[in-house]
Amino acid sequence: KQEVTQIPAALSVPEGENLVLNCSFTDSAIYNLQWFRQDPGKGLTSLLLIQSSQREQTSGRLNASLDKSSGRSTLYIAASQPGDSATYLCAVKGQGAQKLVFGQGTRLTINP
Amino acid sequence: DAGITQSPRHKVTETGTPVTLRCHQTENHRYMYWYRQDPGHGLRLIHYSYGVKDTDKGEVSDGYSVSRSKTEDFLLTLESATSSQTSVYFCAIRLDRGPRGTDTQYFGPGTRLTVL
């Protein structure tokens, strides 16, 4: 059974810092991995999707990497801003599966 | 937001009553999903649909049923609500060809359900 873990559960950093969020998964037979952002009381916003054949994806100040063999993904946020404060979730989709398996998220606070 | 709306956005009901949540999309996506989000459990799949009248169970389907009589609407019914079904419910669609590549899932704004 696939399990997805995100550590730490919460992270607080000053504005302007570069930071890395971590996601690990137990079964490397994944189809893709997706990073989401969730603001309090809101739905999830898709940030980046990495196919299993890819190593990384970039969107603006965000860069997500995937190391399937070690069961890890990282989300790199450059030059963090207070508006980046949110909970970040990663989710993996297994080969031939329909569902996404989510981690419990990292709650990120960027302090001005 | 891929044109996804959920109704109602908030609902308070009593144990034993039936409840129906609606997910509506405007872009004719084939795949639709219902998730619930709970502290300590994260997001878990309840049911999903891969076309009109085609549905299947997720990992936490007990006590829930779904229906999809037309492409744009996916209904989630709690047959007899219990306090353990107090949760935030999210609908999602799968975007087969999105700006972020294939298979991206987009989520609705959520419905907060409280069962007393």
Radius of gyration of chain B: 14 Å
**Shape, per Cα inertia axes of chain B:** globular
Largest sheet of chain B: 7 strands, mixed
**Beta strands of chain A, count:** 11
The averaged pLDDT of chain B comes out at 91
Q: Assign the structural class of chain B, choosing from mainly alpha, mainly beta, alpha/beta, alpha+beta, or little secondary structure.
A: mainly beta
Number of helices of chain A: 0
The coarse overall form of chain A would be globular
Would you kindly provide a written description of the structure presented here, covering whatever features stand out?
The complex is a heterodimer of chains A (112) and B (116). With 112 residues, chain A is an all-beta fold. In chain A, 0% of the residues lie in helices and 58% in strands. Chain A has no helices and eleven strands. In chain A, 38% of the residues are buried. With 116 residues, chain B is mainly beta. Chain B contains no helices and eleven strands. In chain B, strand 4 and strand 5 (42-51) form a beta hairpin. Chain B starts with a strand and ends with a strand. Chain A binds chain B through residues 31-32, 34, 36, 41-46, 48-49, 51, 57, 59, 89, 91, 93, 98-100, 102-105, and chain B through 31, 33, 40-45, 48, 50, 56, 58-59, 90, 92, 98, 100-110.
